[in-house]
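Blinded run. Sample ID left blank on purpose so nobody reads anything into the name before looking at the predicted structure. Input follows.
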Amino acid sequence: METFVWPIRVYYEDTDSGGVVYYANYLKFMERARTEWLRSLGFEQDRMARDQGVIFAVTEVDVKFRRPARFNDALTVTARIIERGRVSLRFAQAVYRDAELLCEGRVQIASLDSARFSPRPMPEALLREIPDVD
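Blinded prediction complete.
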């Protein structure tokens, strides 16, 4: 699968008292990139929940922090599917400042029934948009 790229700016609210991005905010940056990836395919999560009864939940995260990002940095966040199942997707994600790798991780999401919060197959329309992973 092609790597999706999303630009993000570090705001003051993203940083700790030392002006460094607080570690949990890298997960927020990755979440935003996955949301924008989904939007780029024509899927809005609020509509999917309302019209199809499907939501997505993170089920597993493995993150390595390499270098700090700081207030006002222009970052690039990437997302690429590395595993595709009937009810889950695993992403390889990274956060860069220019070409410098700051943070990388693997994030697994699951498709859930919005009423019962139980696993359910991904919508067929979405699966058609996601190529098979080699």
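Unblinding after everyone has recorded impressions. The beta strands are 4-9, 54-65, 74-84, 88-97, 100-113.
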